[in-house]
Fold this sequence. Notes:
Radius of gyration: 25 Å
Largest sheet: 2 strands, antiparallel
Distance between the termini: 46 Å
Shape: elongated
Strand content: under 5%
Strand order of the largest sheet: 1-2
Number of helices: 16
CATH topology of the largest domain: Vanadium-containing Chloroperoxidase, domain 2
Helix content: 40-55%
Order of helices and strands: HHHHHHHHHHHHHHEEHH
Amino acid sequence: MSRALRARRVGAALLPFVLVAGCERAAPAPDPQLVAQWTRSSLAFVRSERLGPPVAARISAYAAVALFEGYAADGRSGLRSLAGQLNGLAALPAPPAGEAVDGAIVAAVAERLVLDSLFRDGFASTRRTVDSLASAQVAARTAAGVGDEERARSEAHGAALGAALLAWAAEDGYYATRSMTWTPSTKQSEWQNTATLDQYVPQTLSMQSDFVATGNPNVRLDAESASEKGVFTNRPKAAGATTLPSFNPVKPTEPFWGTLRTFVIRDGDECAPPPPPAYSEAKGSAFRAMAEQFHDSVRDLTAEQKQVALFWADNPVATGTPGFHWISVVNQMIARRGLTAPQAAELYALTSLAIADAFIGCWKEKYRSMVVRPVAYVNRVLDPAYRTVIPTPPFPEYPSGHSVQSAAAVSVLIKALGDTIAFDDSTQVDVGQPPRRFASFTAARDEVAWSRVWAGVHYLPAVVDGMVQGECIGARINGLRTRVAP
């Protein structure tokens, strides 16, 4: 055999391997900490922007879907798009046919666009952080080996994806509620806000000032009454109408939230809890019996019960929000359970969707039933000297928002990770609360429910019925198809 013929045969034999090598991915799989960076940053944004729980949940849901869809665009991720499965999201732009995109880059670019828009009325520092993080992640993937052409395709698809998700978000009814006015009830039988500004004392968080002048609920700078540290580190927000309101305890929190378009459940009434007992101060009535049961439960709290109430308080402007407590748990699970980047994005998205729908469903019932908070009823009817462990939130009592969204989030966590491994929850370490150890996600969920009774802000039926409502919502989220069939 001639040398030339032998060379041609060897070349032909090696050709399939050359072709395969040419198609192989030069860059390694994305680091799951790329997802964790977004979950941690989102928690910081919610705290520093002083967002109320429903608004924070909405932002988390859209941001998490953007991240998920970015990774799902990469055919190597094993993820399936949520387009056609979420309410109002019929379709999304498809990645270039036959050409690879890098999921981490697509996700970073889409996330940048979505968060930049949702935080457009927030601090300039928030938007700069979003931009810097997205740029750093694109640069990291490029350094890891993503080629120029794939990077360009990925960035273009991320931009198209982000724009489509923002168009979807714009139609959920949120912006219409910004101009609606709500008239508080003056009936003794219906909820009235008892929260005051001086009950909510913000803490300095990780070198971020949360100085508040009590005469200025929107947290604009008041240099005459600010400390020197406050003057130099506080970042004033603009006054006037905003799409990103700061939490204000003297105003009812989002009375129209139950009208928003849901993400997965049919509407705010799917999974609705049973009606609460009718208001009554008469001895022997169901409502009074409920209040007496509550009073008996909180009359002599132990130090541990008070600690539990404080750990799960999650007040806005202090430790975050109840929904983002569970996003913090998701962030902790990424490393502890060894999740891949696509798995982390999937868990973040499903948990955020569960929390967002939980707030819509819960708020629908809250402002329909308008149940009086325990402190108002007990002080008026049973015990004028009773005081709560934490400030009473500025929205109606039934059902318990903590219970609804915790049960929904835990349903997702259990399906994804199981419920047999103990974990330490370090969410509150940076604000002085030591970690708490839980035997399971179920144990943590149950402690959340009891914490709201011990804190003095809910009757027992609100937490029991709230957990049932949350489990129903979580089951709907768990019905989503997020993986490509093998």
